[in-house]
Automatic annotation (TrEMBL):
It comes from Flexibacter flexilis DSM 6793. Keywords: Antiviral defense, RNA-binding. One of its GO terms (biological process) is defense response to virus. GO terms for molecular function: hydrolase activity, acting on ester bonds; RNA binding. It holds the Pfam family Cas_Cas6_C. This is CRISPR-associated endoribonuclease Cas6. Residues 111-244 form the CRISPR associated protein Cas6 C-terminal domain. Gene3D superfamilies: 3.30.70.1890, 3.30.70.1900. It comes from the Bacteria. Belongs to the CRISPR-associated protein Cas6/Cse3/CasE family.
């Protein structure tokens, strides 16, 4: 299930860090019900709105901003949204945001060959003593796809939604990056992979995240899992959210989502 949470910005012109996923992760950790404190099978985007790059970071120029949140557990989403709308406002860095409305996206029909864009960076692997999460791995190498396969299968089993026997059937798996996109960025001397800070268990680690369009060859059940839960590691910390490439008209893919009244501040 995927929802778009729309906020009104009470201090238009405030700024955000260029990478602000860790700030949003702190907000969602407060909002996600305590019964799901150890649950990490969700993902979310950065703040979407009209922004201008400045020396201080991203200056928000629009009156409203949006965050996309996805999770296969509809109860968690319902309780999280109810929690959110009990607040008069939330703070994300310098931004003072008031929850305004929620739209629910229709669930797409996913095929064995699906093209995605990243709306937050993908982290392909966890550090295990032999693997440096900051190391660059070319998305065109099999190693990149192999790490994401291991990550996805482990997460699918740990979610409780699939057995080991089921995941063993999902051996068809290949990440195929958009070659033209990568070559275009290279010619323009732009980056698609950067080192970011993440805070698992409130401890800072540095990870390399990748943002690019790609095609995933995998069974529909695998496609649905990464679409709902995020792709790669640290999805609950703001990494690995995907969207469909060429998804079509936005308004035709969403409908209203009932929310509760706002009551108190989150500080």
């Amino acid at each position: 299930m995927r929802v778009r949470i729309i906020f009104s910005l009470q201090n238009k012109g405030a700024t955000l860090p260029f990478h602000h996923q860790y700030l949003l992760a702190q907000v969602f950790q407060e909002l996600v019900p305590k019964t799901y404190a150890d649950y990490d099978f969700y993902s979310f985007s950065g703040l979407k709105g009209q922004m201008k790059i400045s020396a201080a970071g991203l200056t928000v120029l629009s009156n409203r901003v949006t965050i996309v949140f996805a999770c296969p557990n509809e109860v968690l989403i319902s309780e999280m949204i109810a929690q959110l709308f009990e607040k008069k406002h939330i703070m994300v860095g310098q931004l003072r945001l008031s929850p305004e409305s929620v739209l629910q996206e229709d669930n797409p029909i996913l095929s064995q060959e699906q093209k995605y864009v990243c709306i937050s960076p993908i982290v392909p692997c966890l550090e295990d003593g032999s693997t440096d999460q900051r190391r660059f791995i070319s998305p065109q190498e099999d190693e990149f796809s192999d790490w994401l396969y291991e990550s996805t299968m482990n997460r699918m089993e740990n979610s409780g939604l699939f057995t080991h026997e089921q995941t063993a059937q999902f051996y068809k798996f290949q990440v195929v990056p958009d070659k033209d996109y990568l070559e275009k960025l290279k010619s323009e001397d732009k980056k698609f992979a950067r080192v970011y800070a993440a805070y698992p268990q409130h401890k800072k680690v540095e990870v390399r995240g990748y943002t690019m369009p790609f095609t995933l060859l995998a069974e529909p059940a695998v496609q649905q899992f990464v679409y709902d839960c995020g792709f790669g590691e640290y999805s609950n910390l703001g990494f690995g959210m995907l969207d469909l490439a060429n998804a079509g008209n936005f308004s035709s893919r969403v409908r209203g989502y009932e929310t509760k009244n706002k009551k108190e501040d989150l500080v």
